[in-house]
Amino acid sequence: MEQPYTIYEEQMQRKLKRWEIRLLKEPNLIERASKSVQNRINQVIPEKVHNTITATVKGIVQTTLFGITYIPASEPLRDLSLAERDGKAEELLSLYKKIAAAEGAGTGAGGILLGLADFPILIGIKLKFLFELAHVYGYSTKDYRERLFILYVFQLAFSSSKKKPELLKTIKSWPIISQTFPPAADYMKQVNWQQLQQEYRDTIDFRKMLQLIPGIGAVVGAWANFGLLEELGVAGMNCFRLRWLQDKNVE
């Protein structure tokens, strides 16, 4: 028997629709020009650098799927309303934005080498946040498919406008699609690592490259990381809200 939505849940449904419209809108002139510049930059970056970044992203994603590094010690929260979960999610996001900002300020003040080291560290912070966020909304990351869902959320937050519609469709159809995935080891063979790392890097390029400039690196590093966690938080919370509302009348 279907359970009626609360006033808060109805409000969230309307908010989610507005978010989807913003997410799927066509890029404006400035965004298209920026992407064009980024494509040119990618063409002159040595293949060795691309390979190194790709290997880094691949290693972190493999850790996400197969390891226990990011799995929270606490069990997923049970018997909470969506409003209560959203409140806890906001607290969690506030904490991780501060962590990311502090890390960005520290590496930004350390010059180019530490600035470059910030990339994998920041990815780790983001993934740890998403793992804890999953538990806030009641989903156990001990399940490989839940860890895979987190990777889709991660990609949605930091992919190009061309990729977002397909990723959002997958996320909205997760209960059905997740049943069709092969075992984790087989899925890893299907991932386009070069594309994944390039989509991610292109999204954060401008802000993070400013972090490498002597004299302003600390300030820019904190600003960039804080903003990137905010973007991830919005995408993450909305994706888990979508799932929670879908699951409400299925359980």
Automatic annotation (TrEMBL):
Pfam families membership: EcsC (PF12787)
Organism domain of life: Bacteria
InterPro entries documented for this protein: EcsC (IPR024787)
Listed name of the protein: Uncharacterized protein (DUF697 family)
